[in-house]
Design goal:
Length: about 260
């Protein structure tokens, strides 16, 4: 999502150049649905479990947008065994890996997972193929498998795994508006042209942190949260959302990545 004018959905679009740091962020299509994912191995796309669960590989289309659009065939779907669907108040382990039929092309970024601490206030870049619009109203531009957008947000809350308070599992954020009056958690905005929220089509999108010269994936965008103030629609200023911290699924992810 974009801020108020003069910011716009078009201003948030990545150019789909191979030289872009976001060139390894792919779109995922299932039937008529558009979702997002990212390369974490030449043969693996990381996305959300709720995107891929229950679907045959042949039903899933992955598209790389690094220059000319390039389809990538899916050979296998690996869903985290802890995924139990959307449960209240939060859903855990919403991650999956799509094993590709062949290696992604050389020269396209492959992102390293980040398992380090994610304290409140950590800034993350959201990159995905979801719908967009101005933050003071509902999305007005639909999700598009060839158009990815970039914005940022902060970690506002961290949620531990049930029964394991030492294991950070989820992060929560809100879409800070210009005056903060509707913000679910409060806190200053990152700026009208930077602050963003996920919208339909961003499920499975990577949330990046900068550690060193290259961005690393710290989380997968998963859900809108039922923590909005009364009268605040999802994906508008003040609305809340969240995702799965990779530190909370590290054991599964390391095993699956090593097996390819």
């Amino acid at each position: 999502m974009a801020g108020l004018p003069p910011d716009s959905p078009a201003a948030r679009v990545d150019g789909n150049l191979r030289s872009s740091p976001w060139a390894g962020v792919v779109s995922v299509r299932i039937d008529s649905g558009v979702y997002s994912g990212a390369l974490v191995h030449r043969r693996l796309v990381l996305t959300a479990a709720h995107v891929a669960a229950g679907h045959l590989p042949s039903a899933i289309s992955v598209q790389l947008n690094a220059g000319e659009p390039q389809p990538l065939g899916v050979a296998r779907v690996r869903v985290h065994p802890g995924w139990k669907g959307f449960t209240k108040p939060f859903a855990f382990d919403d991650v999956a890996l799509l094993e590709l039929e062949a290696d992604a092309p050389d020269g396209v970024p492959v992102y390293t997972p980040y398992y380090g601490p994610m304290p409140r206030g950590t800034v993350m870049a959201f990159v995905g193929y979801g719908a967009s619009g101005h933050g003071d109203r509902a999305p007005s531009v639909g999700a598009d498998p060839a158009v990815k957008r970039v914005g940022a947000n902060r970690v506002d809350r961290v949620v531990a795994r049930p029964g394991q308070p030492e294991v950070p599992a989820l992060f929560l954020y809100d879409f800070d508006g210009p005056d903060g009056s509707s913000d679910a958690f409060g806190g200053p905005t990152l700026g009208n042209a930077v602050e963003t929220s996920a919208a339909g089509g961003d499920s499975g999108a990577p949330a990046f942190v900068r550690r060193g010269e290259f961005p690393r994936i710290a989380a997968v965008l998963s859900f809108v949260a039922d923590l909005n103030k009364v009268g605040t629609p999802h994906s508008t200023f003040g609305a809340s959302g969240g995702g799965v911290l990779l530190s909370g699924v590290r054991a599964w992810l390391d095993v699956r990545m090593a097996a390819v």
